[in-house]
User: Fold this.
Amino acid sequence: MLTPQQYAEIAEQFRRGCVFCDPDPRLIVATSKRFRVCLDAAPLVPGHLILHSDRHLGCAGEVPEAWYEELDALRRSVRAQLEERYGRVISYEHGRAGHCLSDGPEHRLCHHFHLHFVPADVDVTGDLHRRFKHIPVDDYRTIPRLYEDYGDYLYFEASDRSMGYFPVDTAIERHLMRTLIAAATGSPERADWRAYRDADLLVTGLTEFSARPLEPYHAPKPQGATL
Assistant:
């Protein structure tokens, strides 16, 4: 499905500029009015997806609250479909903390909201508890208010759907969440997306979602609407 040259082009785009402002159309698997869902070009496992905003917003905490019904409906839909396909799924986001930090003008500084979905049954909550304050999240739509109160954060949703907000007020390692999850899934060599060279997992994802696309997004009905 991908020639070596095509994979090299996707990987290079992934490393430079803002891949979420101008995503490769081959990677997009779903869209809504304000958000897209695409395959991660450097997947930790087959089926690794990223939900991101069309508009260049720094993190979920900066997404306008008026957009959260759409965001949460899409988030739930993607997660449910991945669970149906793969079983257990986890989600994570670097909310302006430990981002894909730039190595210089030729490399990206990734301040663009993107939420990862990884088909896996691993839990890194304990690692996060040991280093950061833990704030349980009962409703994903409260993220903007938590961000206003606590600032930069890490977000993790376990395979049992429990959600946690971990405020970060100091410099941390780049792609910390990816590093923890890569180690937990038994593939620590996949932690650094800059050095990632495994085209097979991306080809697997492209093949799977080409054969069985995600169900189209349907906007949530306004409160009080009738059938």
Remarks:
- The two ends are 42 Å apart (CA to CA).
- Residues 4-211 form a domain with the HIT family, subunit A fold (CATH 3.30.428.10).
- DSSP finds six helices and eight strands in the chain.
- Confidence is low (pLDDT under 50) at residues 101-109.
